[in-house]
Task: structure prediction
Amino acid sequence: MTAAEKRNDFSVGSIPRTIVRLGLPMIAAQLINALYSVVDRAYIGRIPGVGALALAGIGLTFPVILIVTAFTNLCGMGGGSLCSIARGEGRLDYAERIIGAAFAALLTLSVLLTLLCQIFKAQIMLLFGASGNTLGYACDYLGVYLFGTPFTMVALGMNPYINSQGFARTGMLTILIGAVANIILDPIFIFTLEMGVRGAALATVISQIMCAVWAVGFLRGDIPILRLRRSNIRLDPAILRRVFALGASNFTMAITTSAVQVAFNTTLRDFGGDMYIGAMTVISSLRELVTMALSGLSSGAQPVIGYNFGAGNVERVKKSIKFLVFVCMGYAFFCWATVQIFPEALIRIFNDDPQILVIGVPALRIYFCMFFLMSAQMSAQQSFVALGCAKQAMFFSMLRKVVIVAPVALLIPRVTNLGAMGVFWAEPISDVIGPIACCVTFYFTAWRRLDFLVAAKNKLISRG
Result:
C-alpha cells in the first residue's frame, strides 16, 4: 500500500478528524468557487452611474450559469461518489475508467451547451426576466462568459475525482488559483480597461482556464491514486449511466435552482421591477456563499461515508452521518443569526443604492428566516448520494424546488397583497417542508437499513 493509500484509508482513524481534514479544504474550495460570481457582482454593482442596473442584468445570467453547473455536477459529483465506493471495494481500474468517461462527457456536454446558449442568448435572457434596461448588460456578460464553459466544466467536474481520493488540499488549490486570478483581473478589466460587464466575464474565463489546466495536470501526474489516463477517455455508456444516476441529485438541485431563479426574476420584474431583481441578485449571492460552505462540508463527508459503506464498515458510516448533521446544523444556525442581525451591512458589500437597501433588508431577513433547517436536508441528501441512493436524493431535490418553491413564488404575489415581497417568502416555506420530509424518509429508509446491517453483523460476531 502506497503512502497516499495509507493516508486516505478512511476505514481507520478518527471520523471527525478525517471529515474535518477533507471538509475544510472543500469548504474553502466551495467558498472560493462562489467568489467568482460574487466578486463579479460586487465589482459590477459599483460601476459608476449604472451599477444597480448592471447588477440586475448580471443576476439574470445566474440561471444559465446554474445550468452549466448542473451538467458539471451530473458528471462530477455522482462519479466522485462512485469512485469512492469502487476504491473501497478495491476496484481501482474500474475507478479510473469512471474518471475517463466523466472527462469525455464533460467535454462533449460543454461544447453543446456553449453553442446552444450563444445562439439563443438574447431570447433566453428575455425569457428569464430581462427588461429593455437590463438585456444589454445580461447579453454582454453572458456572451463572453460562455466561451469559458468547457474550461469551467472540466475544472469543476474533475475536482470531485481529486477530492474523492483524499487530496482535498489539491482540490482546494484547483479553485484557489482561479479565484485569486479573478479577484486580481476583475478591477483591471472592469475599471482600468473600462470593459464593464464584459471585463468581469473575461476575467472569469481566464481564471477558469487556469483551474482546468491545474486539475487535469494533477490527475495526469504520478501523485494520485487514480489517474486520468488517455486510454480511458471515451464515452462509456455503461459507466456513464451509473455516473449520471448518482449525479442526478446534484444535477436536479442545480437545474431546479435555475428554474426557481427564473420564476423569481420574472415575477419580480412583473410585480416590482428591475430594482427588485437587483435586490434578489444580492440575496442570491449571499445565499450562495453560505450554502457553498455546507456543500463543501458534505463533500468532505461523502468520501468517508462512501468508502466505509463499500468496505462494509457500517458503524463508521453512521458515525460519519451523525457528525455531518451536527456540524452542518451548527454552522447554519450561525449564518442565520448573522443575517438577521447584520442585513444592511451584508447588502452594502454589493451595492449601497438606497432603493436596493429599502427592498433588500426586509427581503434578506425573510429569505433566510428558516435557513438553519435547510442544513438538515442537505446532510440527508448528500448521505443518500454517498450511500448510492440516487433516486431518493433526486426526489427531495425536486420536491423542495419544483413542487414547493417555484409554485409558491409564482402564487403568493398573485393571491395576496404582498406584491413582489411575497416572492421572498417562498424560500422559508420550502425550508420547513423540505427538510422535514427528507429527514423523516432518510431515517425510515437508509438509517434503518444501516441499523439492520449493524445488528446482522453483531449477530454473526456473537455466533463466532
Notes: The longest helix spans residues 51-88.
